[in-house]
Specification:
This protein is of the alpha+beta class. The protein folds into 2 domains: 169 residues, Cytochrome Bc1 Complex, Chain A, domain 1 (2-Layer Sandwich); 187 residues, 2-Layer Sandwich (Cytochrome Bc1 Complex, Chain A, domain 1), CATH 3.30.830.10. Helix 9 packs across helix 12 and helix 12 packs antiparallel against helix 14. The N and C termini lie far apart (57 Å). The relative contact order is 0.14. It comes from Parascedosporium putredinis. It is a peripheral membrane protein. Keywords: Electron transport, Membrane, Mitochondrion, Mitochondrion inner membrane, Respiratory chain, Transit peptide, Transport.
């Protein structure tokens, strides 16, 4: 039910908008914390930080990403049913109430987590805390909604799901929407307020459930080639994690952070000489990491860029990259990591995923310390280890002209 304070705000909304413009004073900057405080409320793991601003976010992070789905499409299905009809409220009512409060509702997923996220004025925390708890425990998984909306969005192909989607979705929701599998993350709300409303509204979330299981990540390497007339692309990936992997991805780079400058990265120079689009990224998961090099463009440019990209990695392994470039890469990687801790969305996913996977959430101070320990020698050793191990190479396009992994000097 919508809270008393929120009802009052809804009733006064039109009056406020009709008032003539009045001069406003400058707001004083409020001091807030950049680190999350973690605690338990109603048996649920909670993390919150308060910037003492006017806006807040509250999200439920569920251990139900695509990695953990028992049947393909279930994660997308649960995402599609979020904030629709519940036993208490219709989808229309949820939409209208949220709009009148100026709030935002969002649902999305990553490889490891399903996230139900709300954004609102901080005084409306009680309403949105109640709404999230209601979505977790009282969503109505109806067959007609699946066929008319959810099913069309996720394009499920397996007949056993399409034949009885309501039952399958309900079973899946009961399995994953349980206290051991969820975490509540708040940004812009006080610990006391979050704990108070979480304790009140999240008591009905099941206390025990069979936790979604996934085999431990195992890296095998390999090569896949797909013929395509649309375009040409090659992705080269290696198993890598930690600050060294992020720095190596920054050193390889591909895109400049300085306007009108091609950048210092090795791949940016390759892009300039070959005409191909090149970039490198580092992906971090709960138990693994992946370093990727992605190339796209014309057949000739991609083929040449792939050769040059491997040579660039070999130059790092040989220790022939200048100290200035490595210093720039460390600074750039550290900035990107710290920027993510300031980003509300990124930080909510990070701290929520850490809680549901039983790991420690990374704080800003720890990030600074970890990147300070990266040295040219460590970076050289990481690059050398990657080249000595197996790579994963995916090639799409004109397969008669694009090189094989062996042609690039890579082991698969």
């Amino acid at each position: 039910m919508i809270s008393r304070s929120s009802v009052a705000r809804l009733a006064l909304g039109a009056t406020r908008s009709a008032r003539p413009f009045q001069a406003r004073g400058f707001a004083a900057a409020a001091s807030g914390s950049s680190s999350f405080e973690t605690y338990d409320a109603a048996g649920i793991k909670v993390a919150s930080r308060d910037a003492h601003g006017q806006l807040a976010k509250l999200a439920v992070v569920i251990k139900a990403g695509t990695r953990y789905q028992s049947v393909p499409g279930l994660t997308a299905g649960l995402e599609g049913f979020a904030f629709k009809n519940t036993t208490k409220r219709s989808a229309l009512r949820i939409t209208r109430e949220s709009e009148l409060l100026g709030g935002q509702l969002n649902a999305y997923h990553t490889r490891e987590a399903l996230v139900l996220e709300t954004a609102f004025l901080r005084e409306d925390l009680p309403y949105f805390a109640e709404l999230l708890a209601e979505v977790l425990t009282q969503t109505r998984y109806t067959t007609h909604e699946f066929h008319e909306e959810v099913g069309l969005a996720i394009h499920l192909k397996q007949l056993k799901i399409a034949s009885n989607p309501a039952a399958i979705s309900l079973d899946a929701a009961h399995a994953v929407y349980a206290k051991p599998n969820i975490a509540l993350a708040a940004d812009g709300a006080s610990q006391g307020a979050v704990a108070q409303w979480a304790s009140k509204f999240f008591n009905e979330v099941p206390s025990s459930s069979q936790s979604p299981k996934a085999n431990a990540t195992t890296y095998y390497g390999g090569e896949q080639r797909i013929d395509s007339k649309v375009g040409n692309a090659i992705t080269i990936a290696f198993p890598a994690s930690g600050p060294e992997a992020s720095v190596l991805a920054s050193l390889l780079g591909g895109q400049s952070s300085i306007k009108w400058s091609p950048g210092f990265s090795l791949l940016s120079k390759i892009s300039a000489s070959t005409g191909a689009t090149a970039s490198s990224q580092s992906f971090a998961y709960s138990d693994a990491g992946l370093l990727t090099i992605s190339l796209s463009g014309s057949t000739a440019s991609v083929a040449q860029a792939a050769q040059e990209a491997v040579k660039a990695l070999q130059s790092v392994a040989a220790g022939s990259v200048g100290k200035d470039e490595i210093t720039k890469a460390i600074a750039n990687a550290r900035f990107d990591a710290l920027e993510k801790t300031q980003s509300s969305k990124e930080s909510i996913i990070s701290v929520g995923s850490a809680l549901v996977h039983g790991t420690q959430a990374v704080q800003a101070a720890d990030l600074v310390k970890s990147y300070s320990s990266v040295t040219p020698a460590k970076l050289q050793q990481v690059a050398k280890t990657l080249l000595e191990g197996k790579a994963s190479v995916a090639t799409v396009g004109d397969l008669h002209a694009l090189p094989y992994a062996q042609d690039l000097g890579l082991k698969v």
